[in-house]
Amino acid sequence: MYERPHVSKHLEFPASFTWGSATSSYQIEGAIDADGRVPSIWDTFAATPGNVQDGSSGAEACDHYHRYPEDVALMRELGLQAYRFSIAWPRIISDAKGTVNPAGLDFYDRLVDELLSKGIRPLPTLYHWDLPQYLEDLDGWVNRDTAYRFADYTEAVVGRLGDRIDTWATLNEPFVSANHGYVTGEHAPGRTSMSDGMSASHHLLLAHGLAGQRIRDLAPDADLAIVISFTPVETASDSEDDRIAALHQENLENRWYSDPVGGLGYPQETADFYEWDQSEVHDGDLDIISAPIDLLGINFYSRSIVSANGAEREPFPQNTMGWEIHPPSLGRLLRWLHNRYAFPAMMITENGCPMPDDIRDDERVIDDERVAYIREHLVEVHGAIQDGVPMVGYLVWSMFDNFEWAWGYGPRFGIVEVDYETQKRTPKKSALWFSETIANNGFSVGEA
Ligand code: FCB
């Protein structure tokens, strides 16, 4: 019988490629009352029964606020080159008048210094969904003024940390902020109005643009980025109804933010479909929003198969949150993004998966499925680089198991396990695999 030869090949990434992990403030920090932090919309939202599946909140989370030296030491041990975290606006600005809280800035100052002292590149994101509650009380992202408040907050942060940061990301996933927060109500602040969602989406983008101006002024040498989520859409059938449903979902989820940032404006047919008159879009806004960025951060988890009546095609394997695992969609997405926008550089700022994590030896979680997920997505990133797509890094979501928003602590995304009773951190098998991959700047793929 014919036997296929053993083929194995090392996928080598570019020498300058950046490897790291990501988290966000509300999901890991805890310490919600420490050093003058004021409530965020997530404190309020999580306090209402029924909003978070297990009734939990980020009040304690991974207690990273107090344990960051140990956490950074672990990143160093694993050989991570970069760490993406977010800054909590409610720690920095205390009230609607814009009072700056130096003790809040001190925390990020210490974190950044700790990272740098361990040779790890700090990659901050200014907004990962924890809007100060006092701004939501003034209508949140539906109020245009929130965009200006965001620019002021940005100025306070960049003024303090700007001498040590080479890349600033403004927003994390504005689609999720606007859609889950204002349209479906699954996330804080839990509002449910399409027209509020449209307003919020524009004000978020304006906030990105206005903050970008402050970053350019205060830190002219730094790179400017925005982090956008992409969930490629496929049509369940060729029927006209399915095609239309897929078109609008594609526009809302995958083009609504990158098109205006890329200078293409809002997808008009979908604005019309939802009868959005764009009265929030003032003269000059689209120029502010489309000022050049240096880096697009891409968060990728899954794809969607869309039909008009909700019936779905047989899905591929899913993770524990029901998200389809479909690595080839990432490769296609990266080529599409590059062809459509030609941003100077792109980075995977989140990619990862929750798995049952129920297989373990005495010491650690043996999460072979997570290893496979990360590896298969990295194969796609590598392929895109071979085709000339300027991918400059890959950050795994997440460094730690953490508070997964409306799902609470059920889904575990970490490459490091967190025991929430004892706060003990234990690297999973995926962390060790990732560490080895970083050390080799790639990995071998092959078939036996
Ligand atoms: C992304 C979020 C991140 C995390 C992952 C699973 O949408 O940016 O905070 O919850 O999903």
Concise structural overview:
With 448 residues, this protein is an alpha/beta fold. It has helices spanning 25-28, 41-47, 64-78, 89-92, 102-117, 133-136, 145-161, 174-183, 194-218, 240-255, 258-261, 268-273, 285-289, 328-341, 368-386, 429-440, and strands at 7-12, 18-22, 82-86, 121-127, 167-172, 223-230, 233-235, 295-300, 304-306, 346-350, 391-397, 416-419, 424-427, 442-447.
Mind explaining what this structure looks like?
The protein is of the alpha/beta class and 448 residues long. The protein has a single domain (10-444), classed as Glycosidases (TIM Barrel). The protein has 16 helices and 14 strands. It has helices at residues 25-28, 41-47, 64-78, 89-92, 102-117, 133-136, 145-161, 174-183, 194-218, 240-255, 258-261, 268-273, 285-289, 328-341, 368-386, 429-440; strands spanning 7-12, 18-22, 82-86, 121-127, 167-172, 223-230, 233-235, 295-300, 304-306, 346-350, 391-397, 416-419, 424-427, 442-447. The strands form four sheets. Strands 2-3-4-5-6-8-10-11 form an eight-stranded parallel β-barrel, surrounded by four helices. α15 links the parallel β10 (346-350) and β11. α3 runs parallel beside α5, α7 (145-161) packs parallel to α9 and α15 packs parallel to α16. The longest helix is centred in the middle third of the chain and has 25 residues, at 194-218. The protein is globular, with a radius of gyration of 21 Å. The protein starts with 6 loop residues before the first strand and ends with a strand. The model has no long low-confidence stretch (mean pLDDT 96). Bound molecules: beta-D-fucopyranose.
